[in-house]
Design brief:
A hairpin with an 8-residue loop joins strand 6 (about 310-325) and strand 7. By secondary structure, the chain is of the alpha/beta class. Helices cover about 45% and strands about 15% of the residues. The chain has helices at about 5-15, 25-30, 45-65, 75-85, 95-100, 115-130, 145-160, 165-175, 180-190, 195-210, 215-240, 245-265, 280, 295-305, 345-350, 395-400; strands at about 15, 35-40, 70, 135-140, 270-275, 310-325, 335, 355-360, 370-375, 390-395, 405-410.
Length: about 425
C-alpha cells in the first residue's frame, strides 16, 4: 500500500486544478465517448456537487448529443418534471412550481432545491429551441410504491382498461399499511401477510391488455416504469426488514432496469446522464461493498454495457457545510463537514493541492491509484461528530471511477 505522502505526490503529478468550470472540458470530452455518464456526489446536500454536475450535463446535452437525465429520485415525481421540461404540463407555471409540487416527501431537499430549479428552467428553455428530440428527466429509484400504483390506476381509468380491477385490488391490499413501508415490511417478513400475489396479478393484467394502451410512447413508458416500480418496490419493502444487503441489491438492480427501458425509449443510439450518490455510481467491486455481497449501478452497468460504454465521475470535498438530518424523517439542517479524516482520500487531495481539482484515471496512472484508501460518504442522515466511525468507504479509486472531482470547500445546497 502506498504511504499517504506517496499518494499526495502522485496527485500532484496527475491532478489538474480548476477555477472555472470551462477548465473541465478535457473530462467532458473523454466522458462524451460513453453511452452512459454517471455523475456521483459524496452527499445529497452539497451545492457544488449539483451545480458542477448541471454544468457538465448541459455541455453533454448541447455539444455531444446526450438524450436524457436519470436521477436518484422517484419516477412519479420526476415524471412530472419530465412533462414540464418537455412543455406538456401547462398546470405548472415554473420550474419552482413543479419541483415544490412533486417532491413533497422526505427528503424533499434532494430535488426541490434552488440548484435543481436552475437546471430545470434551463432544460425547459433548451427543449423549446432544440431541433432534436426533447431531453427527458426521469427518476430511477424504487421507493414510490403507493405513488406508482396511483399513477397506474389513474392511467387505467382514463383508458378504460380491463386491468383497472386488478389495480384497485392491489391498492386495497396495501391500504392497511397506511403508506408506511416499514409496517408493510414487518407484516410481509414476519407474518406472511403481503400483497405479492395482488401485484403479480396486476402486472399480468397490464401485459395482457397492453395492446389497448393508446399509441402514446410517453404514456406507455410512464405506465411501464410504474409497473416495474410497483413490482420491485414490493420486493424491496418485503426484504428490507430481514436482509438489508439484499434490499440494497434489489434497489440498484431496479435502477439499472429502469435506466435500460429509458434508453430503449430514446432509441438505440441514445446516450444518457445519471445523477446518483457515489455509493451507487462508483463500481462496488472496487470497495468493501463487494465483500458484503453488494452490487451497485456502477458495477451492473459496466457488466451490462461494457466498461468502455460507462464513464463514472466521483465527487468529494475536504470541508464545508451540508444539508442533512440527524434521523430519518426529521427536519433537515445545515451541518458542518469536518476536515477530511487522517489518511483519507479527501485529506490526500487537500494536502497535495488545497484547491478545486480533478483527476482522470488513465492507463498511465491507474496503477498508482489502485491502493485501498478511505473515501468519505455522507447520507441524508448524518452525524458529523461521528463520521470517522462509519462515513468512509475503503476504495480503490482508479477502479471505482473513471475520474474524480474534488471541491476543496463546499456549502450546503438551498432547499426551496
Amino acid at each position: 500500500m502506498l504511504k499517504t505522502v506517496q499518494i499526495e505526490d502522485e496527485i500532484k503529478k496527475y491532478a489538474v486544478s480548476f477555477s472555472s468550470l470551462s477548465e473541465l472540458n478535457p473530462l467532458v470530452t473523454e466522458a462524451s465517448q460513453a453511452k452512459f455518464v454517471l455523475f456521483g456526489e459524496a452527499s445529497h446536500g452539497t451545492s457544488e456537487f449539483y451545480t458542477i454536475r448541471a454544468d457538465l450535463t448541459k455541455q453533454l446535452l448541447q455539444e455531444h448529443g446526450f438524450s436524457f437525465i436519470a436521477v436518484e429520485g422517484d419516477w412519479p415525481a420526476c415524471y412530472e418534471v419530465n412533462r414540464f421540461v418537455k412543455g406538456i404540463a401547462p398546470e405548472y407555471s415554473s420550474a419552482k412550481d413543479v419541483l415544490k409540487a412533486s417532491f413533497n416527501r422526505w427528503p424533499g431537499w434532494m430535488w426541490a432545491n434552488k440548484e435543481i430549479e436552475d437546471l430545470i428552467d434551463w432544460l425547459y428553455s433548451y427543449n423549446q429551441t432544440t431541433t432534436k428530440k426533447k431531453v427527458g428527466f426521469y427518476g430511477i429509484d424504487v421507493y414510490s410504491l403507493w405513488e406508482s400504483m396511483e399513477a397506474i390506476v389513474d392511467y387505467l381509468q382514463k383508458s378504460n382498461s380491463p386491468a383497472l380491477e386488478k389495480a384497485l385490488q392491489a391498492i386495497e391490499c396495501f391500504d392497511p399499511f397506511e403508506r408506511k413501508p416499514e409496517k408493510y415490511g414487518i407484516s410481509a417478513a414476519f407474518y406472511g401477510e403481503d400483497c405479492k400475489d395482488e401485484v403479480l396479478e396486476l402486472l399480468n393484467s397490464i401485459w395482457k391488455y397492453k395492446e389497448l394502451i393508446p399509441n402514446d410512447p410517453d404514456s406507455e413508458l410512464n405506465m411501464k416504469i410504474n409497473a416495474i416500480v410497483t413490482s420491485n418496490a414490493e420486493h424491496y419493502y418485503h426484504t428490507m426488514i430481514t436482509d438489508d444487503n439484499e434490499s440494497w441489491n434489489i434497489r440498484d438492480r431496479h435502477m439499472v432496469e429502469a435506466l435500460d427501458h429509458i434508453a430503449q425509449f430514446h432509441g438505440t443510439s441514445a446516450k444518457g446522464i445519471v445523477w446518483e450518490h457515489n455509493t451507487h455510481i462508483g463500481d462496488a467491486r472496487a470497495t468493501d461493498m463487494a465483500s458484503e455481497g453488494l452490487v451497485n449501478v456502477g458495477q451492473l452497468t459496466r457488466e451490462k454495457y461494457g466498461r468502455e460504454n460507462i464513464y463514472a465521475v466521483g465527487f468529494g470535498t475536504y470541508q464545508g457545510t451540508v444539508i442533512a438530518a440527524t434521523e430519518w424523517g426529521v427536519p433537515h439542517e445545515i451541518m458542518a463537514v469536518p476536515n477530511g479524516a487522517e489518511g483519507s482520500w479527501e485529506e490526500a487531495m487537500h494536502h497535495a493541492n488545497a484547491s478545486n481539482q480533478y483527476l482522470m484515471f488513465t492507463a498511465q496512472n491507474r496503477n498508482v491509484f489502485r491502493d485501498v484508501i478511505g473515501h468519505r460518504a455522507i447520507g441524508v442522515v448524518y452525524h458529523p461528530r461521528y463520521e470517522h466511525h462509519g462515513n468512509y468507504v475503503p476504495s480503490r479509486l482508479s477502479e471505482r471511477y473513471n475520474a474524480f472531482i474534488h471541491v476543496e470547500m463546499t456549502k450546503a445546497l438551498s432547499p426551496l
